[in-house]
Write a structure and sequence with these properties.
By secondary structure, this protein is α/β, with parallel strands linked by helices. Helix content is about 30%, strand content about 25%.
Length: about 290
């Protein structure tokens, strides 16, 4: 079976991550253990995860003209993501300031930068969406662009997968275009899911829940030693999109293993595993 083609419409950031024994309290200065700068952004993270899972992956996003831009693009290209239709604009690339504690929990502040310039899809971007099997979107770029992309996907029989994060009120016009909704338990409280054909809810260490038109089930995660939960949800979403052609059961099972593996590594996009990495966990479920 030919690999799925996934077009990812979303954000790309430079993640600036501080590791500390615990998360700081408001107003507190806390000494950290180490620091890392690496590619992040929910869109780019999910694109990288889809590519490492074996999908032909095209990233539709924007970087600036700062010192981070080329490093961000190289991180995607090195994992096989097609960046030929990624925009370059003036100004700063997106950045995220992250703190991770000793238990792997995190806090994140995102500064959109070039991601905010993603409006009015180009013909090249529209072509990529029309040619793809799946369009994977999040909410770190302007909402109007997500709606435009999803509408174009629907017009061209491209499945629309939406990860509604960061969570916000979603218009019915967007929800009507979504085929597969991927969200966590907190997001599920705020997002209307009744009209969506396929809903996948991540449950952290407990795995994930699937609800489809005819069936539903819970699938456990693998048992791992957690190092950093940053990017685990993105690894899940990208892997799910890459494997969806095998059906919901196989795709959710695969995504659970991909998300679990990502927690064993530091970083966001860089924490996603290859097919070999994910296969090593796919049968190790709690």
């Amino acid at each position: 079976m030919a690999a799925t083609t996934v077009a990812v419409l979303g954000s790309i950031n430079m993640d600036l991550t501080a590791y500390a024994p615990r998360l700081p309290r408001p107003g507190e200065t806390l000494l950290g253990d180490s620091f890392a700068a690496s590619q992040g952004g929910k869109g780019a993270n999910q694109a990288l995860a889809a590519a490492r899972s074996g999908a032909r992956t095209i990233f539709l996003g924007s970087v600036g003209d700062d010192t981070f831009a080329q490093e961000l693009l190289d991180a995607l290209a090195d994992s096989g993501v097609d960046i030929t239709r990624t925009r370059r604009t003036s100004g700063a690339s997106g950045t995220a300031i992250i703190t991770v504690d000793a238990e792997g929990e995190n806090t994140i502040v995102v500064v959109p930068g070039a991601n905010a310039s993603m409006s009015d899809l180009t013909e090249a971007e529209r072509s990529a969406i029309a040619e793809a099997d799946i369009l994977l979107c999040q909410l770190e770029i302007p909402l109007g662009t997500v709606i435009e992309g999803a509408s174009h996907a629907r017009d061209n029989n491209t499945l629309v997968v939406l990860n509604p994060s960061p969570v916000q009120e979603l218009p019915d016009a967007l929800l009507a275009l979504v085929d597969i909704l991927v969200l966590n338990e907190a997001e599920a409280v705020s997002v209307k899911t009744d009209s969506i054909t396929h809903v996948v809810t991540t449950l952290g260490a407990a795995g994930a829940r699937y609800r489809g038109p005819e069936t539903g089930y819970d699938l456990p995660s693998a048992t791992v030693d957690v190092v950093d939960t940053t990017g685990a949800g993105d690894a899940f979403a990208g892997a799910l999109a890459a494997e969806w052609h095998r059906g919901p059961l196989q795709a959710v099972r695969w995504a659970c293993a991909a998300g679990a593996f990502a927690t064993t590594r530091r970083g966001a996009g860089s924490s996603s595993g290859t097919r070999i990495d994910i296969e090593s966990l796919s049968d190790r479920r709690s």
